[in-house]
Amino acid sequence: MKSSRALALVSLSLTLAACAPFAALRPTPDLLPSEVARLGDAADRYYAAATPTEQDAALEQARKVSPEHWLTAHLEAERAHLQGDDNSAADALLRALGDLSNEVPTLHLRMLAALPRSRQVEDREVALLEVLSTDHPSHEVRARAAFRLALLSKERGEEARARAAEQRLHGVLPLAVVGPWDNDHGRGFDATQPPESGVDLSASYDGVLRKVRWRKGLVPGPAGTLELGEQLEPSKHVLAYATAVLELEKGGRVELRLRTGEPFKLWVGGALVAQAQDAGDASFDQFVVPVVLPPGRHRVLVKSARRDAGSWSLLLRATAEDGAPLVGLAALEPDAAVPPNVLPLEPVDAEGRGQQLAVGAAAYTARGEAFLATWRRMTGARVVRVKSAERFAQALPGSMLAQLNLYLALAGADEAGRAADVLARVAAGPAVSLPRVRWMQARAARVQGLRQRARTLLLQLRAEKATALVERELAELFDSEGWTEDACDARRRVLELSPGEDGAEAELARCEQQLNHPAQAAGVAARALASRPGDGELLRLRKTLAVLDGELSLAEKLSRRLQVVAPWRLDSWLGHAELLERLGRRAEAMDAARRAMALKPDSAAAWNLLARLQLRDGDTRGAVASL
Q1: Which residues of 513-536 are buried (b: 16+ CB within 10 A; e: fewer)?
Q2: CA 315, 320, 325, 326 torsion: positive or negative?
């Protein structure tokens, strides 16, 4: 058993070495039971620590036992994060993920995705994701790695790699969509609309503005995600339904896996099997709904109740247990005929199912509580985040990290008063020496409008040690005060400290534009696009700069690239139509406007643009009809 595990680790290490620039990891040595116990004890001591000094001692103990072990790397990532060094934290997480004995790889993938990092670290991440998405023994890890790899590769302009990663996401169900209906103040969540009584894809219904019909063949976003906000209007305080059909060769357990950031209800075969009024932030496979289905065809219906912030997206997969490919599954078109029977299915706790994390040998330990609290804070609904954080804090009443996790959970749940009290208690002790804690204080002060206090804290941190974390926060602060030159200087420092960091170049380009430095802004955006040719945000920014500078030929080239990179976005087509109108090519502009209307039929902006083009073309009757 040991030799086969060692060979697997050697194989992974050799594969990683071949995927430069990721450095090969040595296989983790097999540890004696006493060494395993000492390593676990070091991790538990780390999470129970009341001071940074105690944390350092626990980390040093882990390093002495096994510096290459994933748990040691995990602790190093935690420590680097507290020191405000996101790149070192990301690098340590990559080392943890490269260890096949890792007991919480899904947690590490989620932590890694949340970290800002340099292009160099990102390159290593992409190489590792490639390996994890094909060779990791866990189907869930493979799928999560493939999803993340598809997103990153698309942005980096690596289309072949992105397509290959998307193909590894098995069980994605094509959706038809209808809506929107009213959901003002969330009242639509429990209001019954016609699709709940039976799905008829030929039917039309009274929507929030006009008659609505089912639409299929919608353009998906990255990794198969359907961006409902780009397809429906209005797209705030409304709800919509999506439906899919799956066919099973054999009956058995099926896991329906949903990615959404909105409250939802889910029916299978006419039976309500899951619902969640607080979905939390959208994350891959965040809701897992197990059902037992007989052979044959089954219709799935999802109700998505839109709030007023964030993206409105949906991704639905069908898998076997633990995310394994479902043998004998056929993902049919949504209009496929389905027998009108109602299945006797029992509802499950969707909000609870969505935040599960297997922690292996760490169960019922301090580190296990920490793993679960971190996972739920990053993926769970607000109430789940807070309850888990409170449990962690109660289990380890003297733990500095438990209190920091509680602060983050409360702040994320908009419990500002309680969050402020927790942070004040933490900062009153030895934890105040940690850069991350003082950064939290500065951010909280900025949000509360205490700009002078925020500036004092951040400038003190800058004087002690320059980090991209502090420079990012200073840039936000200077922007809020209207100090654009200082904000630009801070954004330049971010790129000096974390070269090629995703999003940092776009922020600097916008800052240069605000300073009326068009050449510098265009130069920053162009350099960023050279390494991220699939970044839609950068493309839109560079196109805007080209238009402002009168470089309409370049703007048109960038605009056409946007249609390839982000065909699901309304502004990819509307912006192109407006540019063509400016170039005097009204016929082509009308074609682009109609493409926008096909994407989002109720878009007022698209109809107004078409009417304007028709009017300029002398088609008064057509313009009036469009309005």
Answers
A1: beeeeeebbbebbbebbebbbbbb
A2: negative
Which tokens hold the place of 501? 């960091």
Q: Quick one: tokens of 117? A: 């990092």
Question: What mean pLDDT value characterizes the chain?
Answer: 91
Length of the chain: 627
pLDDT by residue (tens digit) across 275-321? 998 888 889 998 999 999 999 999 999 999 998 766 899 999 999 99
* Strands (E) located in 134-293: 176-182, 204-206, 211-213, 226-227, 238-248, 252-259, 264-268, 271-276, 287-293
Q: What percentage of the chain exceeds 90 in pLDDT? A: 83
Q: How far is CA 85 from CA 81, 435, 465, 535, in A?
A: 6, 9, 10, 25
Q: 544-573: per-residue pLDDT in tens? A: 999 999 999 999 999 999 999 999 999 999
226-227 and 287-293 as β-strands: parallel, antiparallel, unpaired? unpaired
Q: What is the pLDDT of residues 34-75, one digit of tens each?
A: 999 999 999 999 999 999 999 999 999 999 999 999 999 999
Nearest to 274 by CA among 283, 260, 282: 260
Beta-bridge mates of residue 259: 315
Please, which residues have CB within 8 angstroms of residue 32's CB and are 6 or more apart in sequence?
none
Helix (H) or strand (E) holding 589: helix 586-599
Q: Which residues, including other chains, have CB under 8 Å from residue 428's CB and lie 6 or more apart?
A: none
- With 0-12 / 13-18 / 19 or more C-beta atoms within 10 angstroms meaning exposed / middle / buried, residue 54 is middle
Classify 499 as helix, strand or coil. coil
**Which phi and psi (to 5°) does residue 424 adopt?**
-65, -40
Predicted local confidence at residue 309, as pLDDT: 65
